[in-house]
Amino acid sequence: METFKYLLLVIAALSFFQCKGQTNEKDENYTYQNGSFDGIGKFYKGREIAHVMGFQGIGWLERPEREKEENTSRLIKNMDIQPGNTIADIGAGSGYHVFKMAPLAENGLIYAVDIQPEMLQAIEKRKKAAEQENIRLIQGSEKSTKLPENSVDKILMVDVYHEFSYPVEMLESMHAALKKDGKIYLIEYKGEDDSIPIKKLHKMTVAQAVKEFEANGFRLMENIDNLPWQHCMIFIKK
């Protein structure tokens, strides 16, 4: 646990120094005010947006304890991945989940989407070593996934949505990319549980997630409550 607490401090520091920074622009979707140490001072529907974790946090993403702490194998089972599925991992990071999904969607395609080129380089290196041909890399932006329209069956976001600087624009982009009967799997640390050793802004409650997604054309289909620390919320188009 001491190692885990240390890693949390490391992640907090990396997040602080790698953040995109607060912008002075104003628009109808967001409000700006003095924020917390872990946030960017930009708010959406009452929630302060958290700093982005920098690529220096790859070691945290690939930590050996992750399976035990998050039961990532069960998460993958929750997704019911079929051989022909096209799946996008938004905020794919080092590709931790990408390389778990790719063999299951053997006749399909996994889009690994991330805003940081260093993360994508790490995935590309591992992709070549594994000779995993059904992975396609996309460098997204703060406002777009850059995914083709009507192209994906499932979207996975693991502990990343709360860091989006432009959640409205990103949800709009995902809505366009998702097929009519597609699903979004939103994985976030449980904001309702103070005992989970994750900083407050890096958690989300179900109520907050529903508020934000419903405002952007989605509805909650199910919250699979079988992960140790995280919600597994499934959203579909209204």
UniProtKB/TrEMBL annotation:
GO molecular function per UniProt: methyltransferase activity
Protein name, UniProt field: Class I SAM-dependent methyltransferase
Protein source organism: Christiangramia oceanisediminis
Highest taxon listed in the record's lineage: Bacteria
Ranges where the Methyltransferase domain occurs: 83-199
InterPro entries linked to this entry: Methyltranfer_dom (IPR025714), SAM-dependent_MTases_sf (IPR029063)
Keywords, sorted A to Z: Methyltransferase, Transferase
SUPFAM superfamilies: S-adenosyl-L-methionine-dependent methyltransferases
GO biological process: methylation
The keyword DNA-binding belongs to this UniProt entry's keyword annotation: no
